[in-house]
Fold these 3 entries.
Entry 1:
Amino acid sequence: MNLLLLGATGRVGGHVLRLALQDGHHVTVLVRNPDRIPCSHPNLTLLHGDARCPEDISRAVTGVEVVISALGTDGTTTLTDSVRALVPAMEQERIKRIITVGTAGILQSRVAPALLRYQSSESRRRITTAAEEHHRAYQLLCQTALSWTIVCPTALKEGPSPAPVRAQRDYLPENGTWISFADTGAFVYSQINDLTYVQARVGITY
């Protein structure tokens, strides 16, 4: 398949890139600093650009079948700006499938189901800036007819897998505390061909 990967220089995106190339997909990567991509591969296309820029996104989606965004929050509106650029570009190219990485904070709260986790006592984070930006990106995707999936990991850490990954639609599986960057990347990558969570958030943890 022809994939567009945003956030390839991050710790989740790097794992997605490795798996996609390993399986023979052609991957286009849009990055502000191509030198941060540590590998070269005949199926890898590096584009210098900004995921927030509509012109750069329009150039990057040409010929693409699936978009994967592993962009993180950086205290700005990077996520929402990128979604606003992606949606019309994908519609123009008739691309339906987009998989993004969110946060467990935008899953539904178990203690207050009308709220999201970051809005309720279920979240222990006192600073909610990142969750709010993820929430806005989620709301933007909800307004589209795209086949979107938002993968929402709990606390991300380095380390070997202590147990199988558990996943649940719209909620974080109970008693989950963390998940590795590698397993999160693998789960994101698996959604290319798995339509179980189309137009849904999926919480993942051990």
Entry 2:
Amino acid sequence: MSRRGRRVAALLLLVFLVVPILEIYVLIQVGQVIGPWWTILLLVLDSILGTWLIKREGRRAWEALRERIETGRMPHRELADGALIVLGGALMLSPGFVTDAFGILLILPFTRPLFRRLLTSYAVSRVSIRAYPGAGGPGNATRPGPDVVQGEVVEED
């Protein structure tokens, strides 16, 4: 198995086995401390808070993205924020305190920059750009450019 295949297998094991077991454990512990009905109420309130945060921060991210595009600037930060808000929202959909806590951290505007930096560093480490001198632009980045033609620059007055 390749290195990447082992990473994917470990991630799938974590997501589909460890996280649900952890969620059940935390739910049982919270239920034993505050009672089952209060635990259910806390989960419902947590979902309501998450829904409100997703709506509020999603709207802000969308407006920032539109403004950035309208001014002709690259919306890299806004796109990362949008992706983090969507991921946080997906985590908020699953029942449980652990995924909800992580989802809220991805959505909150004062914790999102940390996760944006992590996302950016991961994306940069995964991207490989090959550029050949004289390749003629991004469409020809996989092959060398045309032959070099010797010439002389003449300035006219």
Entry 3:
Amino acid sequence: MTEADALAQDVAMLYQNNHRWLSAWLRAKMGNKADAEDLAQDTFIRVLCAHTSTQMALREPRAYLATVAGRLLANFYRRQSIERTYLEVLANMPQSEIPSLETQALMKEALLEIDQMLDGLGHKVKQAFVMAQFEELPYAEIAERLGVSLRSVKNYVARAMVHCSAMLP
């Protein structure tokens, strides 16, 4: 048996032994069977991609799957939150200013990409960066809104800029 065959067999066993459990675990957390099934599939795809060149020897497969699925679940909820907020902004816009469906889709995708770029930064760092870059607020006002010093705001924005620069290709 080749290494690829062994890996395929490991993934098949992991799937057969744990798919039903993982789907039920996600359904309990999400309350939605269809989304839970999608996330379970995404979890197994993520596991498969992570182990394409290495042998899969998991001592605690359910703990591993729960960790991977939990991260995907957090991303799912964050994405939903961004989409919900964007729809609220659109709903409050005058009808004449609402962008085309194509522009809306592009803007939503850009928002999700920005959120992904800022992933890993603290909440206040993200807030300071968004306020400075997108709302174009002066640092003094950002400091007041966040309840931090002006120096902290400067550090937050600089940290976010460095982080984003490192994320660019």
